[in-house]
Amino acid sequence: MISTVPCPRGACVLPGRCHSASRRLRSGENQKHPSPSGPGVPGGSAGRTGASSGNRRSHVARGLLNTGFEINGPLSYLEALGVLAGVVGVHELGHFSAAALQNIYVKKFAVGFGPILWKYKDESDPNSVEFSLRAIPLGGYVAFPDDDEDCPYEKEDPNLLTNRPVLDRIIVTCAGVAANMVAALAICIVQVGVVGFTEPTYSPGIILGVINPDTVAERAGLQKGDIVTKIGGLEIKADPSSVERFVDLVKVSPKKELALEVLRGAPSASAREVDAPAAASVLNLTIAPAEMPDGTGRIGVSLAPNVTLNKIMPDGFADQLVLGGKEFWFLLGNICKGLFQFVTNFSESSKNVSGPVAILAAGSEVARNDANGLYQFAALINLNLAVVNILPLPALDGGYLAFQIIEIVQGKKVDRDAERAIMTGGFLLLSSLGMYLIFKDAIKLLF
After folding, report:
1. Residue 149: Cβ within 10 Å count
2. Contact in structure between 191 and 327 (CB atoms under 8 Å)
3. Is the separation of the CB atoms in 251 and 313 below 8 Å?
4. 417 membership: H or E segment, kind and range
5. Which is nearest to 21 in space by CA: 49, 35, 41?
6. Active site (catalytic) residues
7. Are 299 and 211 in contact (CB under 8 A)?
8. What is the pLDDT of residues 364-402, one digit of tens each?
9. What is the spatial distance between Cα 13 and Cα 10, in angstroms, rounded to a whole number?
């Protein structure tokens, strides 16, 4: 975000993440915290349908659904931290470039908050920009000298941001979001060329993951790896929304016995292409979801769709652009869908919002699994940052844009003291929320 001093107007704080974008959902009872998912999940394809076609080369990839992660040192955390810092840098570079190209004075360009690790300023020019890299790479800012008590420029100088026409200021405000969107699209195009385009093929049923101890799922005899093909008369078809429909039925059926048809010993869709055939048995079980304090049902198990992820390599650069665009719009649609669900179902979705620590944990998990997953991690964080920052909330780019639109409508600027008070209050609120999420995520990861 953009900033004038003294209030870091434009402190670009990385957004939290909403688990509605995750590839893995839980229908749990007595759970601990969910596995890191959402923007940090690689593969980016669990919501697409269709199979590979044409002359494109494809291979089966297990992806996250059948992969375990092992901690193997701090390198993966450094990689994820580098991605976060890079995304913030791109956002602030957007604001800085838009201002510089319009000859608007800029005082500071910072990636990160807190103590300065590195700083550069042309000492021969007291009005030059100070560039800095700071210790906490979870945000950043571009500061303008407009509100400095010791501002070296005349109050009416036309190159101060405040004195520029509203359209010039709108360009500066929106440039950070635009930079993140362009970066995300470029990453998707590169990802398709290097790693390939992931396209899923769904099979009937959903796969059970970890069975939480002392839950109705454990007591019913369910096991990790079971494939549930029917529940309570609902046939689980080959569909990307199969997990959501399963969860919805469980939630509205507390204490109600549901018949289950379970395949045990059958390979999942993603394992079928690479594993030897296994003898499968069909089990007919019953389960009665436990009633949670909010009145919904839970059974205590993690769920995943029964899906094969096919990697498709593009035929030439034109095909790479098309597939990269498809990947971009898919990720953007997922984020917007998650944001809509967060707003329309706030009481439930707010429980699943995580902050920078969980984002870093998810990114490091991606890096440990496959460094290629960092492509999509970077694209998702860029898009998350863009979408969240354009919301019309105080201290975000969208908040400044809202004031600028009001200025256009009413034909005069909003009172600067009122704007500053609102933005300062918003920044303090967001900072407090960020600290709360950092503390909450740290407790979850440690315990």
Report:
1. 6
2. yes
3. no
4. helix 416-446
5. 41
6. 92
7. no
8. 666 566 666 778 888 988 999 999 899 998 888 999 999
9. 9
Each residue's pLDDT tens digit, 242-271: 888 899 999 999 999 999 999 998 776 555
Terminal Cα distance for the chain, rounded: 34
Q: How far apart are CA 323 and CA 319, in angstroms?
A: 6
Judge whether 361 and 36 are in contact, CB under 8 Å: yes
Q: Pick from 339, 426, 390: which is nearest to 174 by CA?
A: 390
What is the per-residue pLDDT for 417? 85
Which residue type occupies 117?
A: L
Q: Has residue 77 got a pLDDT over 80?
A: no
| 3-class SS of residue 446 | helix
Q: Do 27 and 211 meet the contact criterion of CB atoms below 8 Å apart? A: no
Predicted model pTM: 0.70
Q: Is the pLDDT of residue 361 over 70?
A: no
SS3 content of the chain, % helix, strand, coil (to 5): 45, 20, 35
Question: What one-character DSSP code corresponds to residue 412?
Answer: S
Burial class (CB in 10 A: 0-12, 13-18, 19+), 130: middle
Residues whose CB is less than 8 angstroms from the CB of residue 79 and which lie 6 or more positions away in sequence, other chains included: 363, 364, 367, 371, 374
CB atoms near residue 125 (< 10 Å): 8
pLDDT in tens, 198-245: 888 899 999 998 899 999 999 999 999 999 999 998 999 888 888 888
Q: What residues are paired with 201 via a beta bridge? A: 308
Cα distance between residue 108 and residue 129, in whole Å: 5
Query: Which residues face 208 on adjacent strands?
Result: 303
> What mean pLDDT is reported for the chain?
77
* Residues forming beta bridges with residue 354, ordered by sequence position: 17
Instruction: Report yes or no: 25 and 243 within 8 Å, Cβ to Cβ.
Output: yes
Confidence grade of residue 5 (pLDDT, cut at 50, 70, 90): very low
In order of their start, the domains of the chain are 2-24+36-47+58-196+314-446 (no CATH), 199-313 (2.30.42.10)
